[in-house]
Write a structure and sequence with these properties.
Largest sheet: 6 strands, antiparallel
Domain Protein kinase: 12-288
Helix content: 40-55%
Number of helices: 21
Oligomer: single chain
Distance between the termini: 45 Å
Radius of gyration: 30 Å
TPR repeats: 576-609
Region (Disordered): 357-378, 447-490
Strand order of the largest sheet: 1-2-3-4-6-5
GO molecular function: ATP binding; protein serine/threonine kinase activity
Protein name: Protein kinase
Number of domains: 3
Number of strands: 11
Length: 627
């Protein structure tokens, strides 16, 4: 069933789409009770295409059975399990925070690289507490259940804005209670970069496998990289042989006692490791309290709020960070963290931008005979001053639905917008000659001036160093005009309103060639069939990315939405929808310049009949008029 925010799913109301994994998708939802009482939950729903996969459904049910028995502060609790229209789902505790893998990425982006030592040690210590609770669970008669997570990695650990650390996803956990659902020898599951040597060899695993994986996570938190990296065969061979470099080889400032704890947990022989997650956690706690006695869960919460304060601001939330945390964090000896703490807040940055924009002189007007006047200014920043912050950003924020539609509907193309460009188009010529290079600097937001002749001269296209001559530009491009006399040199660039962008004239339909016969005709038919399949796959992938970005924007996780849109553009540089999403996300983040750049790239790549093209042109026109 196709779901959207606001839909009812069983007894839950869906709030926002959070993400999609290999075989399941997650939603933020709320359980509405009597008298308007609500409870936030996370819905994990099996994707429809895997509803008939018996092996996966068995694994999903096993996760529900195992997780429903767990109730610990360091384990995300499962509240409900069931079916809605033949689709299995889990209703789990909603953790208000970020997955640990995103915390690692944000720390690198902020210049920290590795996490501060006490933060990394505290997170690993809390993971050990939750894992030991699961490992030591027993049934009604007191018999151990033998639960082993076997998939410990940063994306299965959640960190809340209150400083809580919770383990999720026991989907491939092994419990002796589940007879008949047992891993066969030689079969390995989970993420190979976090495999223990016994997992790499396909042997039976126990709780000490989770000790190994926790140590790998701690290693990455301390050193900003994994102990072993590479293809699966290379990684598993090095792990099985115990070829693990000590953390001090990557981080020489690491205390020797902490280095020894990590290496003990990463011993290839499980008999030499910590005997349990509880023992490993106690050793980490002893180190933490000896070296950082003031550190607590509130310290972790404050660091998370500092790292993600831009996200919280865009969500309209204010989670305070006390001055005492600044003093505590400086004692950790992390220069990059001290710099981050001294950085201005998003509100201060926006205020400074507004002040600088208002302080700039108003743009002057440059006119030519027989042409309407258009504003010009010292730089393109003038166009995006205070008015742009409330123009393009607001318009773009309202336009996020451009990427939110699950199945875009065709939109009728409007009539061409009257041209308002401050240059004079050349008279028609039979033999177009290359014009002299224009001294006017090309601004960021420009209009297209179609030549009178059907095709633009090749010399005109090559005059622009930023444009690839081999790739046709379809919209929002700057075309130089030929004049009978040289134009006077203009010291400042002329900014042309985006509302002047016109769609190129429709191409004259060519006569359809006669169908080929024989072997060549058969080859053409096969080629067309392959092209149709490839096109269908691309369209499916495009829709998946659009759904992901739309869901992240609805949940106000703009950082993740920007990352997904950037990945789309990096992997598909010729796909216009990727730049449409980038424009929408940057507009939501109040980045008018970046938003306009991506919207213009979309116009260059999108075909003339693209259903979103007219809307983008209209929006850029409004932003240009506001500037």
């Amino acid at each position: 069933m196709e779901l959207q925010a606001g839909d009812t799913f069983g007894r839950y109301e869906l709030v926002s789409w959070l993400g999609r994994g290999g075989m399941a998708e997650t939603w933020r939802a709320q359980l509405v009770g009597a008298a308007g009482v609500t409870k936030s939950v996370l819905i994990k729903k099996v994707l429809p295409e895997y509803a008939d996969d018996e092996a996966f459904i068995s694994m999903f049910i096993s996760e529900a059975r195992i997780s429903a028995t767990l109730s610990h502060g360091n384990v995300a609790q499962v509240f409900d399990f069931g079916q809605v229209e033949d689709e299995y789902f889990l209703a789990m505790e909603f953790v208000d925070g970020k997955p640990l893998d995103k915390v690692i990425k944000r720390a690198k982006k902020a210049g920290l690289g590795a996490l501060p030592i006490p933060v990394a040690v505290f997170i690993a210590m809390e993971m050990c507490r939750g894992l030991h609770y699961a490992h030591s669970r027993t049934d009604g008669s007191g018999q151990p259940l033998g639960i082993v997570h076997r998939d410990i990695s940063p994306d299965n650990v959640l960190v809340s804005y209150e400083g809580q650390v919770k383990i999720v996803d026991f989907g491939i956990a092994k419990a002796q209670l589940l007879r008949g659902f047992k891993t066969e020898p030689g079969v390995v599951k989970g993420k190979y970069l976090f495999f223990s040597p016994e997992q790499a060899r396909g042997e039976e695993v126990d709780a000490r496998t989770d000790v190994w994986a926790t140590a790998v996570v701690l290693y990455e938190l301390l050193c900003a990289r994994l102990p072993v990296e590479g293809p699966p065969q290379t990684v598993m061979m090095k792990i099985a042989e115990g070829q693990i470099p000590a953390p001090t080889t990557l981080r020489p400032d690491l205390p020797k006692e902490l280095n020894a704890l990590v290496m003990q947990a990463l011993a290839p022989d499980r008999e030499r490791r910590f005997e349990s997650s509880h023992a490993f956690g106690d050793a980490l706690a002893e180190f933490l309290h000896a070296h950082y006695p003031r550190f607590s869960s509130l310290s972790l919460a404050n660091l998370l709020r500092v790292l993600f304060r831009a996200d919280l601001t865009h969500e309209g939330r204010e989670l305070s960070v006390p001055k005492t945390f600044h003093d505590e964090a400086r004692k950790w000896g992390e220069p990059a963290l001290a710099k981050l703490l001294d950085a201005p807040s998003p509100e201060q940055i926006q205020t400074r931008r507004m002040v600088r924009a208002v302080a700039k002189p108003p743009p002057t007007e440059t006119t030519q005979p027989d042409a309407p006047t258009v504003p010009s200014g010292p730089s393109r920043k003038v166009l995006y001053g205070a008015s742009a912050a409330g123009g393009l950003a607001v318009a773009g924020a309202c336009l996020w639905f451009l990427v939110g539609s699950r199945s875009p509907e065709p939109v009728a193309q409007p009539a061409p917008v009257p041209q308002t460009v401050a240059v004079e188009a050349p008279a028609p010529k039979v033999e177009p000659e290359p014009p002299a290079p224009s001294p006017v600097q090309e601004p960021e937001l420009v209009a297209e001036v179609p030549a009178t002749s059907p095709a633009e001269p090749e010399s005109t296209r090559s005059a622009h160093p930023t444009r690839k001559a081999s790739k046709p530009v379809r919209a929002a491009q700057h075309v130089q005009a030929e004049e009978p006399t040289p134009a006077p040199v203009v010291e400042q660039p002329t900014v042309v309103a985006a509302s002047a962008v016109q769609e190129p004239p429709p191409a004259v339909p060519e006569s359809e060639p006669a169908p080929k016969k024989g072997v060549f005709g058969l080859l053409d038919s096969k080629r067309q069939e392959v092209q149709q399949k490839v096109s269908s796959l691309v369209k499916t992938k495009q829709q998946e990315v659009q759904q992901k970005v739309s869901g992240l924007m609805q949940s106000k996780d703009y950082d993740a939405a920007l990352e997904a849109a950037n990945d789309c553009a990096a992997n598909n540089p010729d796909m216009p929808e990727c730049y449409l999403m980038l424009g929408a996300v940057h507009a939501k983040l109040n980045h008018p310049r970046e938003s306009t750049q991506h919207y213009e790239t979309f116009l260059k790549l999108a075909p003339t009949d693209h259903p979103r093209r007219a809307k983008v042109v209209e929006m850029l026109g409004k932003a240009g008029n506001a500037g």
